[in-house]
Amino acid sequence: MAAPRDALKPQIDRQKTTPFHLKLFYRVNSFNPLSEFAVPSSPSSYNGPTSGPNAIRARSPPPAARLPAHLEIYTWQSCTLRELTQLLTSALPSLLPDPAVGTRICFRLIYPDTKSAATMGGDARGRYLSKDMGSVVVGPKDSPYRGENDDENGGSAATGPRALRLQGNDADKTLQDWRFVIGDYVDCAILPPLEDGSVAPPLITGRGPG
């Protein structure tokens, strides 16, 4: 009999494992365009003379990339989408509408296009790809609509005068589940409830340079 999926994942002891740095990007109503993560290309190398009338003078380094708005955190591979939502909404509660119930927070992984960089060389350097990670929905503490992994006491966050529940089938997915590599980014889109109060559908961007 095959081993359960959870048994195949290495267990992470947060007391003994050093957390790593993660940039958590955010935007209301949509994801950040991948073009905003691009790294400025470096000046091409030149093997010409370094002295004399035809010498090539040293060029200034390209300006550092100006990244979209983000939160810098330290976490582990076992960090869940629910935990990322708690960290984001606790640090920046103004991102949530009032009332917050019915808000959907969608996540996607942003990672370097290493395959194109290997085949295309400098022309593909600094390009990023993305893949969807799932979403978390903000609901009332007593909401009957819970994900299959929601428990009675966990997954709540205090935002405003009443407690809220962070729920959904994707809420307990971890960075490890998505093969996160240290240095990758996580981007999230905050989708307020629709005009009729219902939850907005998740943003599906697929996998690739979208």
From TrEMBL:
Cellular compartments per GO CC: nucleus
Highest rank taxon of the organism: Eukaryota
Cited InterPro entries: SAP18, SAP18_sf
Residue span of region Disordered: 137-165
Pfam families in alphabetical order: SAP18 (PF06487)
PANTHER family in the record: HISTONE DEACETYLASE COMPLEX SUBUNIT SAP18 (PTHR13082:SF0), SAP18 (PTHR13082)
Protein family per UniProt: Belongs to the SAP18 family.
Protein name according to UniProt: Sin3-associated polypeptide Sap18
Native source species: Aspergillus felis
